[in-house]
Amino acid sequence: MDRTSTEDMSLGARWKLAWRVLMDGTYARHLVTAEATAKTQKAPAQVVAPTPPTPLPQAISTPALPPERVHASALTLLAALQREGRLVDFLQQEVTGFSDEDVAAAARVVHAGCRRVLHQGVELEPAVRESEGASMSVPTGFDAQRIRLTGNVAGQPPFRGTLRHPGWVVRAIRFPAVSEALDPRVLAAAEVELP
Amino acid sequence: MARYAVGIDLGTTHCALSLHDLSLADGQTPSASDRAVLIPQLTAVGTLEERSLLPSFLYLPSPAEFPAGALGLPWDPHPTVVVGEFARRHGVTVPTRLVSSAKSWLCHAGVDRTGPLLPWQAPAEVERVSPVEASAHYLRHLVSVGDNRLRAAGVAEGISDQEVILTVPASFDAAARELTVEAARKAGLSQVTLLEEPQAALYAWLERMGPRFRKELKVGDVILVVDVGGGTTDFSLIAVTEQGGDLQLTRLAVGDHILLGGDNMDLALAHTLNQGLAASGKRLDAWQFASLAYGARQAKEALFTDSNLVKVPIAVPSRGSALMGGSVKAVLQREDLTRVLTDGFFPVVPVTELPKTARRTGLTQVALPYAQDAGITRHLAGFLTRQARALASTTEAPVALAGRSFIHPTSVLFNGGVFKANVLKERLLSVLNEWLVADGGRPVKEQEGADLDLSVASGAAYYGWVRRGHGIRIRGGTARAYYVGVESPMPAVPGFEPPVRALCVAPFGMEEGTEADVPPQEFALVVGEPTRFRFFASSVRRDDRVGVLLDDADAGDEFEELASIETCLSAEPGREGQLVPVHIQAAVTELGMLEVRCVERGGPGRWKLERSVRMQGDESQAAS
Asked: Which of A65, B63, B264, B381 would disulfide-bridge A69, Cβ 3.0–4.6 Å?
């Protein structure tokens, strides 16, 4: 590992980055796109700025990675949701036979743990500032990814409508770095207690 | 040349790291990312995350326990130990390989603190570490994090080349301080300055206030710092005095070492809930109990934050994969919270009620000398009363007592995560104010502190900047007077030990960078043979001058015996076995360490007296 030439980025941060690039094809592609636009746009690291709609990244030829490497970050997130909030246990269990009280007790475990993962991993904000149920205007040239029109969609913007759901957008990402030495398919290890 | 002051809070349950740019001018403040440096650490197998605190837990894995590469850190691809969040979490399931509360062992004179004794109940094959080594592991992690951080900021030198301030409890005795410095040395920090934690918290407050602090304080005020951390409770009194028309802060007194903190409170809640579960036939294993304790803490915080809540449900997940049907539900009621925490740890008591010292039964962990009375208000009453008696007998008291039976603070500064709960702050304030009003005094003012978890580290970093001649410095010197034991010459009586007299070698309040000769007493040491002295301290004898000889150090409660000190005068050829007349000299270094030396009478010899940290009575090791 290079420990000498580090002018503006810590070793830890670069190490994390390297892992992510290796494991996450989507992210690697984003980096390539980001580098291309870096000259025209200055955004702080790891912050998703409200960007103008960009064309879908062109299909680029990459060496074929096994699916668990292509989707490693998704599997890592599942593992975290299981570890902290037992989400996989919860979803794998048949719910019908249990009383509401049993389901509620389990739901509290899932809610508390998964919420922790969510809040530690990303910073969220609504896609629009208006409050739910309020009347709002949708201007000409609105961001069609951030605003979805429903109901009687006809004519040209600007529109006026009622905000049914303010949406969620990630403002900052703080997901952990995960060692590539591990097989991401293992969402939870078997536990064997020795006497 | 140091560019940064580095504040390290080496806590019983958590560590924190803070930087203060030494080139900052008065009034400028460090960036948020300097003030609380984020600490990358393992949070799960192969998972590296940044947290603002590093849990002070050390896990000693078995070689086959984890897959290759699972424990790698950016600065160490193959570590042999784990520190931080993952150590704490995983250790719950493998308690015999987990080291916790290493700091509390550092001030435990009853064990060999440099010997491999932790984890206390580890099986034979586990390679144990000493409390010093465990502390060094936490420091190494923090130093690596800081080095990376500095490199990212374009600073070529690492943490060890910066001005490093390491905090210790005010109640740490000289030996525990020395061991802390030794741990730092093992972690590559050859030069560290020690700072008492309550003082660090006050420095953080001073930094936050800026010049406004002069409006908050006036001459004659007494600030009480109440620092309840994860594992220890620490009291300090700081007086506002005047010299040449300038306000001065003088540390008046520090309390005894009380092993009682926030973790005890969470455990007490969990035990209460567990009793309820056991009564209904539900048994939890160690892992489930840990998650019950975790849930209890969350529920406690919810109840303390929202005064309208009457109860908060807690779900303890099943150990197996069947979550529904296997999870156990408990409910934390507000009345239980009040009974166990508010009344249990902060009981409403008169100031005359002192901590109970009767030995409790049923303590499972016998090794650490945990506080026997959980009532923090009783410990506070004891501290204020005891120190008032000590001040009453001195002629140079920095504050007027006016015949009061306990010291009347005028301000209170809270520190430690426990006081995130306003209810507990208010309880302590109301108990204290009741005492004050009943004694004809005025209620105290609460000073709004900085961050309860991080202010010790950031205050320590700020102190590094203050040492460069900025801002105001808290004066104090040693918070104890130190004595060596001298056996009284008397005829041997079977079954009766001769009383030990105490010779004062360092007075109370001895300032940094000064030394004191013990004038009349002369000792003769045999060259080439180890000689041991018993060593005592007193936090209440404020007027003893150097050289004073006091009768019977073993009697009464004014003296506290510390680990003995010893020396072996290196023998020049031909002088072995000779008697050399020496006298004793004490010095407090610029870094706040007490050193005791033997100086040859009329000769060139000077020998440092090493404090023995080995188990008392273990003569075979002492002679080595």
From this structure: A65
Quick check: A6 and B151 CB within 8 A?
A: yes
| Nearest chain A residue to B73, by CA | A12
Rounded to the nearest 10 degrees, the angle between the axes of helix A11-23 and helix B131-152 is 80
B128 and B18 together in one domain: yes
**B543 shares its domain with B404:** no
Co-location of B379 and B243 in the same domain = yes
Mark out chain B residues that contact chain A at CB-CB < 8 A. Answer: 40, 43-50, 67-70, 72, 74-75, 77, 93, 145, 148-149, 151-152, 154, 295, 298, 313-317, 319, 321-325, 327-329
Residues B327 and B428 occupy one common structural domain: no
**Is the same domain home to B451 and B564?**
no
Q: Which helix (H) or strand (E) holds B330?
A: strand B328-333
Cα–Cα distance, B131 to B137 (Å, whole number): 10
Q: So what's the ipTM on this one?
A: 0.75
* CB contact (8 A) between residue B325 and residue A16: no
CATH number at residue B402: 3.30.420.40
List, for residues B307-341, the tens digit of each pLDDT value.
Answer: 889 999 888 888 889 999 888 889 999 999 999 99
Q: Are residues B384 and B338 in the same domain?
A: no
In a domain, B288, yes or no: yes
Please report whether residue B251 resides in a domain.
yes
| Cβ within 8 Å, pair B151-A11 | yes
Tell me the shortest Cα–Cα distance from A191 to chain B, in angstroms: 9
Question: Residue B358 falls within a domain, yes or no?
Answer: no
Cβ-proximal residues to A140 (8 Å cutoff; 6+ apart), any chain: A156, A157, A158
Query: pLDDT digits over B17-65, tens only?
Result: 999 999 998 888 899 999 999 999 999 999 999 999 999 999 999 988 9
Domain presence at residue B209: no
Instruction: Name the H helices within chain A.
Output: 11-23, 25-37, 67-70, 72-85, 87-92, 100-121
Query: β-strand B594-600 against B606-611: which pairing, if any?
Result: antiparallel
Specify whether B97 is located in the same domain as B178: yes
Q: Are residues B254 and B271 in the same domain?
A: no
Domain count, chain B: 4
Give tens-digit pLDDT for B196-212: 999 999 999 999 998 88
- Per-residue model confidence as pLDDT tens digits over B221-232: 999 999 998 888
Shortest Cα distance, chain B CAs vs residue A163, angstroms: 30
> How much of chain A is in helix, strand and coil states, percent to nearest 5?
35, 10, 50
Backbone angles phi and psi of A173, in degrees to 5: -115, 130
Could you list the residue range(s) of the whole structural domain that residue B32 is in? 4-195
